[in-house]
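// run 5 | inverse folding | seed 20
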C-alpha cells in the first residue's frame, strides 16, 4: 500500500476516534420500540441495573421492575407512597426507594425485592443516590430543603446536610463529593459526602430551574438541564460555566454517556436533546431525537447503549390546565440506533 493511502486511512481513523479516545457515533438515535406496560400511578425516575438486567420504574405508590432483555415485568415493590427514585447498593444486595409521600426510605432485598426495613428521613425525599466512595445513600429532601445520609450497609441515618434551597437531582464524583441542583435558587451545591459539609455554591445563570444533573467523571464536567431550555455545562472543580446549549421544553433528566462522550436531556415536549463536545472544546447540539410527549425521565443501559424513557398517552388539556395522562396507557420507549 502506498504511503499516501496509509496516511489517508490514518486520518480517517483519527476522525472516527474523535475526542478523548472515544468512538464518535455517526448514526442518528431513534425510538426502536414501545413497551406498553399500563398499570396504575404516575411516574418519575427510572433506574437501570445493567448487571442484574433490571429496570426500576417508580409509579407513585409502588415500583415496577422490568427485565431489560425480555421487556416484561418481573416484580413489584409495593407500599412506596409518593415514590420518586431508586438507588442500588449491590455490595450489600440492597435497594432503596425515596418515598416522598410519607418521608421514608424503603430498604429492599435486590434478589427477592422484599422489603427489609423502612427509615424516616427528611421531608419529601425526591432524588436518591448511592455514593460508592462513602458507601452511603443520600436522599434529596425537597420539603425540608436538606439531604439525609444513610449508611448503605445498615440503613442507619448518619447525618443531614442543610442546603438552604429545594434540591432536585444529584450526582456523585465517586471521590467524596456530591453535587445537587437547587431548583429554587438556580444553583448547584457541592458538599462533602463524608463530613456532610457544604463546600461550594455555584450559580447556574443563564440557567433557571435546574432539574436533571449528570457528570463526566473523566473530564470533571457537570451537565445541569434547566426548565428555561438550557443545558448548563460547568467545571466540577471551579464551578465555571463552560457552555449553555439549547435543549427541549420541560426537561427533567440528564445523562452523560461515558461510552460516547455525549450528554442527553429528556424533555416533556417529546424530544431527546443530544449534546456533543467539539474538537475545540466547545459544546453544541448534535440532534433532537423525536420521542413522545411526556417522555421527560430516562435511564441508560450501558450494556446495550439503549435509553429507556417513560411516558403515556395524554388527553387534550382544558384551557388553563395541564395535559393529563390517559389511564392504562403507560409506556416505556426504547431509544438507540
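// decoded
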Amino acid at each position: 500500500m502506498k504511503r499516501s493511502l496509509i496516511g489517508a486511512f490514518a486520518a480517517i481513523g483519527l476522525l472516527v476516534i474523535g475526542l478523548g479516545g472515544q468512538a464518535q457515533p455517526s448514526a442518528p438515535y431513534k425510538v426502536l420500540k414501545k413497551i406498553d406496560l399500563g398499570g396504575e400511578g404516575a411516574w418519575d425516575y427510572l433506574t437501570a441495573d445493567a448487571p442484574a438486567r433490571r429496570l426500576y420504574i417508580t409509579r407513585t405508590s409502588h415500583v415496577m421492575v422490568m427485565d431489560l432483555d425480555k421487556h416484561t415485568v418481573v416484580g413489584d415493590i409495593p407500599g412506596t407512597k409518593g415514590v420518586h427514585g431508586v438507588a442500588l447498593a449491590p455490595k450489600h444486595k440492597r435497594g432503596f426507594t425515596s418515598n416522598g409521600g410519607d418521608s421514608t426510605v424503603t430498604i429492599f432485598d435486590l434478589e427477592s425485592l422484599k422489603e427489609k426495613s423502612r427509615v424516616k428521613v427528611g421531608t419529601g425525599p425526591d432524588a436518591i443516590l448511592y455514593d460508592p466512595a462513602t458507601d452511603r445513600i443520600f436522599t434529596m429532601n425537597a420539603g425540608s430543603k436538606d439531604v439525609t445520609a444513610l449508611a448503605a450497609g445498615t440503613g442507619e441515618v448518619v447525618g443531614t446536610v442543610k442546603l438552604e434551597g429545594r434540591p432536585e437531582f444529584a450526582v456523585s464524583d465517586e471521590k467524596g463529593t456530591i453535587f445537587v441542583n437547587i431548583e429554587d435558587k438556580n444553583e448547584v451545591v457541592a458538599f462533602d459526602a463524608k463530613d456532610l459539609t457544604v463546600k461550594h455554591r455555584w450559580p447556574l445563570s443563564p440557567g433557571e430551574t435546574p432539574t436533571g444533573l449528570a457528570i463526566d467523571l473523566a473530564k470533571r464536567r457537570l451537565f445541569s438541564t434547566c426548565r428555561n431550555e438550557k443545558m448548563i455545562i460547568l467545571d466540577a472543580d471551579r464551578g465555571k460555566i463552560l457552555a449553555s446549549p439549547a435543549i427541549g421544553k420541560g426537561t427533567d433528566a440528564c445523562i452523560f454517556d461515558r461510552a460516547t462522550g455525549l450528554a442527553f436531556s429528556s424533555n416533556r415536549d417529546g424530544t431527546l436533546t443530544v449534546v456533543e463536545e467539539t474538537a475545540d472544546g466547545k459544546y453544541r447540539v448534535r440532534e433532537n431525537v423525536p420521542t413522545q410527549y411526556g417522555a421527560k425521565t430516562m435511564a441508560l443501559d450501558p450494556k446495550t447503549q439503549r435509553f429507556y424513557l417513560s411516558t403515556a398517552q395524554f388527553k387534550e388539556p382544558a384551557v388553563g390546565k395541564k395535559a393529563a395522562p390517559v389511564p392504562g396507557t403507560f409506556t416505556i420507549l426504547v431509544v438507540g440506533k
